[in-house]
Amino acid sequence: MNAPAPSAWLTSWSFDAVGAVGVVLALALSITYAVGLVRAHRAGTAWPAWRTAAYLLLGIGSLLYATCGPIGSLRSAYLWMFALHVSVLGTVTPVALALGDPVRLMGWQRLFTGRLARLVTFPLLAVIVDAAGILAVFLTGYGQAALDSGAVGVILVLHMLIVGLVFSLPLLEEGVLPQWATPPVRTLIALGDGLVDAIPGIVVMTTTTLLMPRFPGFSRAGADPHLQQRWAGGALLATAESIGLPMIAILFAQWMRHDERQAARVDLVLDAIRPVSDDPDEPETDRPWWLDDPRFAHRFKQD
After folding, report:
1. CA-based R_g, the chain, Å
2. Contact partners, residue 291, CB within 8 Å, separation at least 6
3. pLDDT (tens digit, 9 = 90+) per residue, 109-154?
4. Neighbouring C-beta atoms of residue 141, cutoff 10 Å
5. Which of 40, 159, 290, 299 has the most CB atoms within 10 Å of its CB?
6. Domain definitions of the chain by residue range
7. Cα separation of 50 and 29, whole Å?
8. Cβ distance 175 to 101 under 8 Å?
9. Residue in 279, 204, 276, 285 with CA at minimum distance from that of residue 240
């Protein structure tokens, strides 16, 4: 009684207040993205198919699955399923939506240029706020209130999504953060985020007292509340770390592309100022030309 039947992962769907808001959000996000795709097509801009797939299949799909799908419908029956509900909305869905690159598609870069936007989207602040929010769900009455009240449940959904997007969008969207946030810096931030995101799962998993003693699923015959709480911590930890590794890989790929573009720009500059000899008999040499150019040679002289 600590886990649902395997078939429930496909057949358990519900449309309570949380499920309804999930459907509304999915429709709004999908329509907005579709409008951006139409504009890009009319402008002759080729949009990567993998970004569209990540946005719709992983982003919108995980949103529906965690609100009106099995995770959402069973969140009050199993504590670890409620933990999945929180962690998927706070990590998986935002990262998948950010992979769709909606900011660049819709031309919303200006939304991140103001002082308030810079403060809110500051990566280190977003990391702390995200982890603190998940801890608050289990260490305060927030999580229990979200189960008891549909309105608070909707607030929890919006809270997790917004905080997750505030962190994921600037980090994965190139050119949104200030110039100091180079690919190496953003990769380092993602590594730190993976460590901080592990804290809520570890806290929930190792706490011996019941954090949500009035959880509805504990009244089911055969349910083991302490075991479910350990599983809930494990679900938080597994979800956070499973999304952290792909995020680091994506940022590392952006880092490689950034270095390639930088090298190409340097080559263009050097080619533009490289002296061209008119003497066809001048022998070729592997010695870099700038070592013999008086404009640059003094910089390479050794004492």
Report:
1. 25
2. 297, 300
3. 777 777 777 777 777 788 888 899 999 999 999 999 999 999 999 9
4. 13
5. 159
6. 11-266
7. 17
8. no
9. 204
Average model confidence (pLDDT) across the chain: 85
Q: What does the alpha-carbon distance between residue 224 and residue 12 come to, in Å, rounded to a whole number?
A: 22
Distance of alpha carbon 269 from alpha carbon 273, whole angstroms? 7
Whether the CB-CB separation of 140 and 72 falls below 8 Å is answered with: no
CA distance 202 to 229: 11
Whether residue 183 contacts residue 255, with contact meaning beta carbons closer than 8 Å, is answered with: yes
Provide the Cα torsion 18, 23, 24, 25; round to 10°.
Answer: 90
Residue 16 DSSP SS3: coil
Note the Cα 70 to chain centre separation in Å. 22
Among 173, 207, 172, 183, residue whose Cα is nearest residue 256: 183
Query: Could you read off the pLDDT of 150-159 as tens digits, one per residue?
Result: 999 999 999 9
Tokens read off for 167: 């962190």
| Residue located via tokens 């949103």 | 63
- Cα first-last separation, the chain: 78
Q: Which amino acid is at 72?
A: G
Sign of torsion, CA 133 134 138 141?
Answer: positive
CA distances from 280 to 63, 277, 292, 294 (A): 67, 8, 19, 22
DSSP assignment letter at 92: I
Residue, of 220 and 70, whose pLDDT is higher: 70
Q: What angle do CA 203, 198, 67 make, to 5 degrees?
A: 90
pLDDT digits (tens, 9 = 90+) for 59-88: 999 999 999 999 999 999 999 999 999 999
Tokens of 260: 């390639």
pTM of the model: 0.82
3-state SS class at 108? coil
Cα separation, 163 vs 11, whole angstroms:
30
Distances (CA, A) of 197 to 17, 53, 75, 151, 168: 28, 26, 21, 26, 13
